[in-house]
Amino acid sequence: MKNLLLTLCAVIALGSLTGCAATLPAQLPAGFQVKPVARSDSGTPFDAGRNGHFATVTDGTVALTDLQGKRVTVANGGASALSFSPGGHRLAVALATTGGSLLRIVDLNGATLGETKVAGRITSVAWRSEKEVLAGALNIRKYSFGSQMVSLLFQWDGSGVPVATTLNDVTLRPHVAKLPEQLLYNQLLIAVSPYRDEIAFTSLKDPPLFTPYLRVLIRNLDTGGGSEVGQVQLGQGKVMYAPDGESLVIADTDKATRRISLPEGKPVENWPSAAVNSALSPSGRYLLLDGHLYRKEKAIATFPAGSRGVFVPDGSAIAVSYQGQLFLVSGLEDAAAPAPPADLDRVLRLRRLRSQGLITDQEYQKQLEGKESTR
Amino acid sequence: MMKSLICAVLLLSAPVLAGAAEPCLPCHAEKTPAAVAQWQGSAHAKAGVGCEKCHGSDHDKIVKGEAKVGMKVCAPCHQKAYQEHRASRHGMGLHSGWGCTRNLSDRKPGECRFCHEEGDEAPRSDVQCARFLKQSPEMAEIGCNYCHSVEDACDSCHSKHMTDLKIVRDPNSCAKCHMGPDHPQWEMWQTSLHGTLNASTGRKTGPDCQTCHMPKGTHNVSIGITMNSGGVPYPAAKAQPARGDMVNICSDCHAPSFARKELERGDQVRSQSIAILKEAEHVIWDLNDRGLLDPMPENRPPHPLSGQRLVTDSQMLYEDTSHIERLFFKMKKYDYARTVKGAYHQNPAYTHWYGNAELKMDLVDIKSEASRLKERGKKGESKAAAPGAEDELKVLKKKFERGALSEAEYAREKGKVLEKMR
Superkingdom of this entry's organism (chain A) (predicted)? Predict the structure, then answer.
């Protein structure tokens, strides 16, 4: 009893000193454990690495914290995006600078391995491989009759000049260009396919007589081929690949989320929660939507409003950021992402052909089935 | 003596004219005396139409070049001419000459005003020209818009302050634009029987541009024409009435049956020339299917409107292209145009030597270049591996997209390639 009171007092005292939430007021099923692991400023990006490291922004400083609480400062200044490499040995950090952004790769000791300037504001970073990092950036130029918004993809190997590709170029009407930044910049959140050959992202469409919306697009990184697979409302710009690499989790309405098949965009699964602050576990068994944790289609836990989460790459836990604190919620029965198919090269070749419209999806499926039937 | 007389008349009439042009005259008689003198001698001055009526009264705007006297300024008083002009291909001039330049480097911000007005959310025209988009602002201004601005500028033909109809009834006023390698109508008229008779005996015997293309003073210069400005024949429903109009025009001097026969001969020359063009175009698309153009569209700066694709239609370029496409550009834009327009203008030398002979020699050059590229492609193949399934599928897709393979043929051929992949 005495220990409990002491712990409670300590928690209250610590919380009042730091301004952070000392506990995570969540409704969790039996077997889940919660542990604070790092500080994380509200509204800032964070990520969980494969080796028990967490990247957060604290008091405007980007830091790496391990499970033992050891903290290493990585960069001074706020970051617009953070992402651990697939192996967890590197962290990509997007930092805002005057007139553009800085893309930096650091190791787990905080040492800078590479750094490059990027035109525009980086909205997301993602890793294609242990060496190649992708960054999506938005560039806005203002004219009297509206604004030009250009979406750019940067592919960077950590040295040299990143390869830039224009993904979208749209003229925004003046009233659209003046929308709040959390709406306007909540797009171009790049997701890398489990096959590492393709990305999914959203980009703004502003038709003259209609409400602006986001197009959900896929693009093969090697061929540049791709297509539009769906549309979502402004502000719901996050897309996530399901582990099969053949479907995407995207917003449906403002209160629902769907999984759509690729490349035709047909819905295959639905959830009755908004696609806000969403995250998908490595095996696809758990899905976090607007504070609700789903296991398959059933909500099993609820986190407080405003909390955001990211799954640990081995699927054992989810890191949840809430009121200045990052908590590790463990006890999940997830698994690591499925291993790539044995005939990966052949599948990649077929996906490459499909991305260019050289074969239809039916022909793609038939080729895969044909291969399986000959095994 | 004559000059003194004109000056005396101008001076005597000055008080009357000044009333229409107050308060501009006192300064402009000194600053721009030629403009004032031209206006004073014009029908506008006689009718009391002063400076402000056309230029407005905002002097700052005029000085900045923001008070252009466009066609809408002239239209209220010249409705008939305005409507006829709008219905003609002159009324489409600017549309075919402009395109959005915002993504091009080193542009002048003032350019936006050609298409956008302050507060516009969308441009006033969505028709774009790839060749225009490749030009620098300076080149676009003199090389494109000096002619294509005819859409919105009466002064393109009439001059700025003079109204003398002598100016626009002179074929030289057409020559500013209708000359040169791509559409030498002025030259081919001059050296035709019509033109030579005009030079020796005048327009009553030798008709000029205006006689046939602006009959009875109409501003619709497209009357009687049976193809678009790129030489593509109109469908019969549009061509037949136009042919009737032209036969009527010719019938002022010729028997209708004679006129019709002459024009139908032009139609035959046009059909034969199109067949030669199509043959050359097919050769180029075949090379593109096989990935043998040098460079291929994906390896050169993107086409301003179509991106990294082969373009051989009216939007084709003469720059940032392969050599064989550049030959085709000359063939289509220069030699085909000269053959066909030469035939309709009854000019033997333009039809044959400047046109048809060049057209046929172009085809020889294009086939020869295609052979060279194919030969080079074969050598490349022997060094590298045989073309993979992806290349084969690309060739098939391109053939299907341009109609060289039916849907069934495409599916069958694709099936064979996929079978090999298993």
Answer: Bacteria
Does residue B74 sit in the same domain as residue B136?
A: yes
Which CATH architecture is the domain A37-363 placed in? 7 Propeller (2.130)
Same domain membership, residue B100 and residue B151: yes
Predicted local distance difference test score (pLDDT) of residue A63? 96
- As a whole number of angstroms, the distance between CA A287 and CA A153 comes to 27
B121: nearest CB among A146, A352, A367: A146
Task: Please tell me whether residues B23 and B48 are part of one structural domain.
Answer: yes
Question: Which chain B residue's Cα is nearest to A370?
Answer: B422
Residue A144: list chain B partners with CB under 8 A: 112, 118-119
Nearest to B116 among A145, A353, A370 (CB): A145
For residue B112, the chain A residues in CB contact (below 8 A) are 143-145
Residues B100 and B63 in one domain: no
Angle between helices B407-421 and B389-401 (to 10 degrees): 180
Q: CB of A223 within 8 Å of any CB in chain B? A: no
Pairwise CB contact (< 8 Å): B418 & A371? no
Cβ within 8 Å of residue B30, ≥6 positions away = none
Query: Nearest CA of chain B to the CA of A209: how many Å?
Result: 11
Number of domains forming the structure of chain B: 3
Alpha-carbon dihedral sign for residues B402, B405, B410, B414:
negative
Interface touch A208/B116, C-beta < 8 Å: no
In the numeric block, which tokens belong to residue A68?
A: 């033992």
The reply to whether A370 touches chain B by the CB within 8 Å rule is yes
Instruction: Specify if B322 maps to a domain.
Output: yes
Closest chain B CA to residue A353: B390
Q: How far is B397 from chain A (nearest CA, A)?
A: 7
A371 contact residues in B (CB cutoff 8 A): 422
Query: Which of B36, B67, B98 marks a domain boundary?
Result: B67
Q: What is the DSSP string of A20-77?
A: S-SS---B--TT-EEEEEEE--TT---EE-TTSEEEEEETTEEEEEETT--EEEEEES
Cβ separation B421–A367 shorter than 8 A: yes
A88 to chain B, closest Cα gap in Å? 35
pLDDT digit of tens for each residue in chain B (422 aa)?
444 444 444 444 444 444 555 689 899 999 999 999 999 999 999 999 999 999 998 999 888 877 888 888 999 999 999 999 988 888 776 554 445 555 555 556 565 655 565 555 555 555 468 888 888 888 888 898 888 888 888 999 999 999 999 999 999 999 999 999 999 999 999 999 999 999 999 998 999 999 999 999 999 999 999 998 889 999 999 999 999 999 999 999 999 999 999 999 999 999 999 999 999 999 999 999 888 999 999 899 988 888 888 999 888 999 999 999 999 999 999 999 999 999 999 999 999 999 999 999 999 999 999 999 999 987 765 444 445 889 899 989 988 988 889 999 999 999 999 888 87
* Domain match, B152 and B98 both: yes
Domain that residue B57 falls in: 1-67
Mean pLDDT of A317-341: 92
Contact map slice: A 347-366 vs B, CB within 8 A:
349, 352-353, 356-359, 363
**B120 to chain A: closest CA residue:** A145
Two structure tokens written together for B377: 């492609």
Beta bridge partners of A156: A133
Place of tokens 């004679």: B258
Structural domain contains residue B178: no
Determine, for residues B414 and A359 on separate chains, whether the beta-carbon distance falls below 8 Å.
yes
Window from A271-275, A328-332, B144-148, B265-269 with minimum mean pLDDT: B144-148
**Alpha carbon B237 to its chain's center:** 23
CB neighbour list of residue B392: distance below 8 Å, 6 or more residues apart:
B417
Band of pLDDT at residue A4, cut at 50, 70 and 90: very low
Tokens of A351: 């996906």
